[in-house]
Amino acid sequence: MSVLEGGCLCGGVRFAVDGPFLRANHCHCSRCRRHSGTAVCTQARVRREHFRLVSGAELIRTYRGGDAYAVKAFCSTCGASLFGGSWPDGPQISIRLGAFDGDPGIRPQWRQFVAFAAPWDEIPDDGLPRYPERKPA
């Protein structure tokens, strides 16, 4: 895999990924909806050793909302949603697919928390597996 770059809306935060993605999905939970401002948050995961923060570490802010919740990381200048999961110390980095400059080469493989989808969200019949809550391990 060649190096894939991405960043936030204002360009203050930049990152690079040089390894394969582990998985990708759409999340319809209310936290992801509110964080992204859209019907879903679409993300992919990569192992930490394949991720490099190029610039803007000082601009990244996080919100958790409780011990049971995944981190929501964003740029403090432009507000762009960037990372999630166990940012910044986990073994994997969850990256919002919309933050990449080009095609990441992976497509979402399932939809989770569909029982919590917004009432106006008409989930397309795209053939992806759907899970009412978190996808079982």
Walk me through this protein's architecture.
The chain is mainly beta and 137 residues long. 5% of the residues lie in helices and 36% in strands. The chain contains one helix and eleven strands, in the order βββαββββββββ. The relative contact order is 0.24.
Largest sheet: 8 strands, mixed
Question: Per DSSP, what share of the residues sits in E-state strands of 2 or more residues?
Answer: 35-45%
How many DSSP E strands?
11
Shape: globular
Judged by helices, strands and strand pairing, the structural class is mainly beta
The percentage helix is under 10%
The helix count comes to: 1
| Average pLDDT metric | 93
Q: How does the SSE layout of this entry go?
A:
Elements lengths: L3 E4 L6 E4 L3 E7 L2 H7 L4 E7 L3 E5 L4 E4 L7 E5 L5 E5 L6 E5 L14 E2 L17 E2 L6
Parallel strand pairs: 3-10, 10-11
Antiparallel strand pairs: 1-2, 2-5, 3-4, 4-9, 6-7, 7-8, 8-9
Task: Label this structure with key terms.
mainly beta, 5% helix, 11 strands, eight-stranded mixed β-sheet, 137 residues, three-stranded antiparallel β-sheet
